[in-house]
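A protein record pairs a chain with a discrete description of its three-dimensional fold. The following entry can be read in just this way:
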Amino acid sequence: MNKAKHFSWHSVGLFLISAASLCFEINLTRLFSVGQFYHFAFMVVSIALLGYSASGTFLALKRKPRTKSLLRDLPWLAGAASLCMLGAFFLINQLPFDSFSMVVDPTQAVILLLHYAALASPFFFVGMIISLILGKSRSASGETYAVNLVGSAVGCLVAVLIPSWVGGEGVVAFSAMLAALAGWFFTIETKESSPLPKSTNILRGFLRIILITTSALIGFSCVTGNQPAFFELTISPYKSISYALQNPQAELLSSQWNGYSRVDVVSSPSLHSVPGLSYRYLESIPQINALFIDGDNQNAILDADADMSFASFLPSAIVYQLRPEAQALILEPNGGMDVLVALALGAREVTVVEANPLIMQAVQDAYSGEKVQRVNASGRSFLLSSRESYEIIQLPLTDSYHPVSSGAYALGEDYRYTLEAFTDMIDSLSADGILVITRWLQEQPSEWLRTFTLTVTALDNHNLSPHDRIIALRGYNTGTLLVKKSPFTAAEMDKIKMFTDEKAFDLVFAPDSMAFQVNRFNILPEPIYFNTFQNFLTSTPRESFYKTYPYDVSPPTDDHPFFGHYFKWLQFGEIIRTLGITWQPFGGAGYLVVLLIFFIALILAGILIFLPVLAIRNRGVKQEKKHPILYFGLIGLAFMLVEVPLMQQFILYLDQPAYAFAAVLFCILLFSGLGSVYGSRKLRLYQALTALVGILSIYSFLLSKLIHATLGLPLFDRLALTILLIAPVGFLMGIPFPGGLRSLKPAHSGQLTDGQSQFPLIWAVNGAASVVASILASLLALSFGFNLTAVVGTGFYLLALLVVLRQKML
């Protein structure tokens, strides 16, 4: 009976601390995306794994780890983890990191290191708890590992479900509350196994204070819909919303969170957001409110009865002249201005596809009306599910302008701008329909040029000539492409030329365009866009253009959906020369940020592994077998290199990054937990690894094809199929770790097993390998795509299998 109770309280505490840890980790990615930029959000995984690995190193360095006495510390460790979650968030808010001044202000590097250490601290204490519990009993390692994984899986769901009620900041408090509750259950377990120490009252008071504090924070956010001022997330001054709120008369009208975004609406007399408007429009534009997603990408919100006389001076207005009373499809217009423009210019019906329900709530006026049909879905899934053809399909400009030199969104996947997406849009056009796409112009042709190469390649794949099916219009700061399945007629060209002359748009590319015609209104020192487009089209083969051009402007694909990633090694010299001179610290290379962090992670991982190995040698402890260290390092690398690309591939499939992360991570962790309990009993270690390598090899050939073939299914069906696809992989991925522990030398004469004595080192090595792998996965994905990243992960599982067979870890 005592054993059952012991296991029960023990398991509840482990379950809660695991859920708290994953909930905090996933929510941190959202907080970083809102507070900073996307390329800092991905670091959260490496921060968490670094904390876990450091806990193993710390335990391995202890000279005489007394498991029973250490288990008495579990409540304190849980309380410390809870306090560190609150403290770390408070630190990054009160001492914000300014990424854009790092190269000229050395103190920012110190602040970044402080943030890293503070954010890793809760994972360090959680890692201590998990390591102590897992290392205590080799025979029950599968069951204990399962509780850890299932708790983590639940934490994934919690991180996605509760932000709508408590906000991103409230999830921090909720995670800390779960960790403190875990401490309460550990105190019960400790009391039943041994007498409580005299410090118990202090401990319980400590946990009680944390529970009261976190409950108050959660309750305040639920009742008021806001956070206390000291607990509000600090947003980078370089984000669009920060600029908008600088005006003394600016007002934040609303701020809403859901599991994958924060949507803000701001009112300010200084707001102006009509990208592409001709300078020949001399009247005032109507008063707008601004919509911000994750603090950036300002979009205009207009009243339904606003004066829309400016609409005919936008570059997209020409398509409504070419196709009067058209049936239009507008994909994810965010603020909805393009919807009102379409109606003002005479569209017969407008179908609006918007994936984020918070946006629909914020811009109800634009999305309402008899002629507007609203669809809550991603543009990609709608295109494949809809059987209708459209006379106009519009992909609006909804991103804020970001200089290509900033690299701010190099790591951000965008499945609207991939070769497969453009192919789907062209397929959904009617026989004489027009696709219209607008992007920002950069000083060096890059963003608009990549859109052009995407369009040309998509037409090539349809065996359609791009020379007479693409029109390119250039305004002051935007470029617009018009694309048809059929050639533009002479009558259509006459209308387009009349429109460009009246509205002062330069006709950069057209079936009969000439160099002297393309630089008349928005005058540049030379017709650089015309020249670049022509150079691309005349390059034979076109790959030669991609190789010699200073930016990477090759068409992104669903396997490599990084539209904002323009970095090439040709830029490296210029980046080094401009360090400390330009205010953009990353050149054209968010890639270099990842590379720098990768080398830092390698150094830290080496330290975390080297220190305990050196300490063991200094103690004169003989290591009978070195293969466990190699084996656990390999499966640590493999796990992350498989998990990360799986999550990325399912972003397209499940419409939102948060859905994909939660669903894939939940399934992997849940089924890994089942595999660790049941699979490790039914399958030998070599059998599980062989099956895993086989399934992952099949997925490398078939998964992307299956995703695209079923993308048009309803979201619920796609979610069910996701579970079916991930379940066998997750089940098998749960076996190698506990199976490896069981394969170690059995106990003799009541002494610790190798699995127990080496476990802190094993935990450190596995965690350090995972730190490296999480960043390596981003590097490989940016360079070669998700599929190859998963293949590399499969290769590490294959190497682990070879170690098992060679060392007879069967």
User: Anything to note?
Assistant: The longest strand covers residues 429-440. The longest helix spans residues 2-35. Residues 385 and 712 are 4 Å apart (CA to CA).
